[in-house]
Amino acid sequence: MAAARPQGVRDTTRLTERGERGGGADQASMRRTNLGLILRHLRDHGGQSRARVASETGLSKATLSSLIADLVDRGLVTEGELERGGSVGRPGLTLHVDGRHVAGLGLEINVDFLALTAVDLTGRVLVESTRPLDTAALPVAEVVEAAAELLTRATRSLRARGVRPVAVTVAVPGSIDPAAGRVMFAPNVGWRDVPLVRELTARLGRSAPPVVIENDAKLGAVAEHTLVAASGIDDLVYLTGDVGVGAGIIVEGHVLRGASGFAGEVGHIPLDPAGGACACGRRGCWETMVGLGAFLRLAADEGDPVRDPRRPLEERLGELHARAAGGDDRAVAAVDRVGRDLGVGLSVLVDLFDPRLVVLGGWFAYFRDALVPPLQATLAARALTDSVPHVTASDLGLAAASRGGAHLALGSVFRDPGGIDPPKPSSRPA
Amino acid sequence: MAAARPQGVRDTTRLTERGERGGGADQASMRRTNLGLILRHLRDHGGQSRARVASETGLSKATLSSLIADLVDRGLVTEGELERGGSVGRPGLTLHVDGRHVAGLGLEINVDFLALTAVDLTGRVLVESTRPLDTAALPVAEVVEAAAELLTRATRSLRARGVRPVAVTVAVPGSIDPAAGRVMFAPNVGWRDVPLVRELTARLGRSAPPVVIENDAKLGAVAEHTLVAASGIDDLVYLTGDVGVGAGIIVEGHVLRGASGFAGEVGHIPLDPAGGACACGRRGCWETMVGLGAFLRLAADEGDPVRDPRRPLEERLGELHARAAGGDDRAVAAVDRVGRDLGVGLSVLVDLFDPRLVVLGGWFAYFRDALVPPLQATLAARALTDSVPHVTASDLGLAAASRGGAHLALGSVFRDPGGIDPPKPSSRPA
C-alpha cells in the first residue's frame, strides 16, 4: 500500500515531536530503514563511493555491501564511473540513484475526463495526458475498464522505454476509504461504495504496480506542494472549485488525512443558519455560497445560456469570464461576491491551519484575476494575527490530481525501497 | 530549542509522505541522527549488549563505540550487568537508557496560578505542583520572577536527587511566537508582546536548561495524547473552556503548529452573521456561544451571585454545577444549549481534522456529565461520514499544560541527544 501511512512500531514513550526515525525496530525492519537511508543519502549527496557512504552513514562494510546489492537488484541504484570534475587522482566507482528507470503513476477519474501522469524519481514528468470521458453517464465498470486501459497502455509504453512503474495513485472526486481501497461516496460521478482498488487490480493483471486511491483535492494539494517545497513552503491549503468546494491541506509537508482518511472536508462549514439550503439538508454551508451552482445563480438569470446544464461547463465559464472581463455588472458582482465569501470560509482555515500559502484550483483558478483581490481583502480584514497567507491560483489545470498522485506514488520508493519489487529479467532496463 | 521544529535538510525531491529519516545528512548530522537512533533502539528493546546493538542497527563497531561513549558522557545511557532471566551462560554487560536521571520540565503561567510538572525519561511524574498567583493583577516582571523562582527551586531539588533537568517548556494562555520566544498576546493575563524566554532565561542563570514557550491548549493536547497514544489514538482535538475557547490539535501524533505557530485558533469560527457581538468586533463567533461569559448569561440573571466577577470562578462554577445537578431549569437549559453549540463548532473541526477522540478541558471538563450528551448528539446529527469521534473530558485538571510541556521537553532528548549537554561533574548523579 504505497500511499498508506507508514506502519512503524509505536513510539511507546509517546513523544510528540517530528524527526525521529520510526520508533522501535527489529533487525528486519532496521534493514528496511537502512535501505531507505542509503537511497536518500545518495539522492541528497549525489554520487558517492562506497567508502564515503560507509564513513558518512556509520554503517559497517558488511551491512552496507548487502544493502547496496539489494538496492542494485531492485534497480534503484547503479554503480558507475566517478565524474572527476577537476579533482586529481584516478577515477573511482560511485553509487548513484538510478532515478530515470523508475516512475510513479497518477490517474485521475473525474466527471468528464481521465488524466494520467507519470513522474520519474528525478522529478521529471514522463507522461501527462487526458482523455475525455463522460464518467457520470457511464456504468462504473466501463469507467474502470477505461481507466485500466489507460494505465495498461502507460505502463507498457514506460516499460518499452526501460522505465519501471512502481506504484499508482488513483484520484477520485469524493470521500474514500484508503485502507479498504473503496470509494465511499463520489456524488459528481454518481459512485457510492465502489471497491475501486479491487476492480482496477483485477483488470490490470499480476504484473501491474500496486494501486492506492486518494481524494482528488488532497492530491491536488500534494502536486502544488511539490512546486513550492523548494521555497520552504510546507503548510498550504489547496482549495478547488467544483460543483462544491474541495480542499487538500498540507501540514508540515504532509497531506492531512485524519484518523479515517476523511480530513479536509470544508464544504459544509456552517457559516449562516439563515443561509441558502444545502444538498446536505442544512442551511448556510460554505458551498451554498461559493459552489458552482451559487456562482451561476448569482451571475445570470435562469433562462441565460450560461445556466444551461446541457452546454459544456468550460464554454459557459468562458462566457462568464468574458462578461466579467468586459465589465458586465451582474458577472462582476457575482465574482466579487464569491471572492468575499471564499474569504470568509478561508479565514476559518487560516485560523485553524495557519498556512503560508493558499492555492485556488478548479474553476476558482479560471477566475483568479477577479477572485483573488476580494478574497485577499476579506482574509486580511478577518485576520486575528499578522500571519496572513499569500493567495495564488493553480497552473496545473486538469493534471493537478494525477500529478500529485504520481508524486505520492514515488514517495514510497524513498521511504521504503524494500517494498519495491526487483524488475523482472525481461523488463530490466538496458 | 527543544520544542522547535527539527531543522533537517530539505527533502529536495519534495516527497509528501511520513516515515523518512531527515532528508540529507552530512557526517556531523548523520552522527547526531545515529545518536538518537541508538537511544531509541535501547528504549524500545530494553537492555542489549554492544554486539547485539551493532548487529541490529548495522552500524560499524568503531562508529558504535564512539556513539555509545558520547551517550554515556551525556548521562543518557549506562552499561550494567545483564539480568539473566533464566538464560544459561555467564552474565554480560548490557546498555540501558538511563531514564531516571534526566527530566523534562513544564511550567504553566495562567490567570490565577502557576503549575509545574517534571517527568523523567521513563515517563514517571517526579514533581507536580501548583501555586496560586493572581497573574492578571501583577506586573509582568513579578510573574516572571515567581515563575523563575518555581523553576529554580524545582531544578535544585531535582539535581539534589541526582536528576538532570534537560529542557523547559513554558505554557502561556495566548498566542505566542515560538521562534522568537515571545508572547504575542495573552488577553486573560493582560500580556502583549512579552519576550518571555529572554526574561526568564536572564533570571534563571547560565546553568539552567533551555527554555521554549508554547500555547497552553497545544500543550494540553500533548498531555492528553500521552495518555491515549498507547491505544493507537494519534489524531485528537483538545478543546478547553476558558474565558473563550482554546484548542490543541494532534495530527498523526504531532501537535499542529502551522507556518507561524498560530494554528488551532478556534474561537472565532463565524457560525452566525446574526449572532451575538464578539470581543473581536464581529458577530456570531463560536466563543460568543460557548465562552464562559455566554454560559453565565444563559445560566443566570445579571444580579445572580454566580455572575459576580469578584467571587472566585471555581466557587461560582461549583454553584452552577449543583443547580444543574439539582434540576434547576435555567442551569440545565444553559448547559444543554452550550453542549449543542459546542457540537456545532466541533462538527467543523471533525470535518476538517477527522480526529478519533475529542477531549474537553477547562470548565467544559467540570460539566462533562451534562455537556457531553447534547454535544455528542449534535455531532452525530451533523456528521458527514460514519467516522464520529468519541468525546470525553480531561482528568488532568490544572496540570494539563505543564504535563504536556514536560513531555514536549523530553521529546528533544530522544530526537536529538546530541543537543543535551553532558552533566557538570558536580551534578553528575551518583
Automatic annotation (TrEMBL), chains A, B:
The keyword Manganese does not apply. Keywords: Kinase, Transferase. InterPro entries: ATPase_NBD, HTH_MarR-typ, ROK, WH-like_DNA-bd_sf, WH_DNA-bd_sf. Signal peptide: none annotated. It comes from the Bacteria. Residues 38-80 form the HTH marR-type domain. Residues 11-23 have a biased composition (Basic and acidic residues). GO terms for molecular function: DNA-binding transcription factor activity; kinase activity. Pfam families: MarR_2 (PF12802), ROK (PF00480). Belongs to the ROK (NagC/XylR) family. This is Putative NBD/HSP70 family sugar kinase.
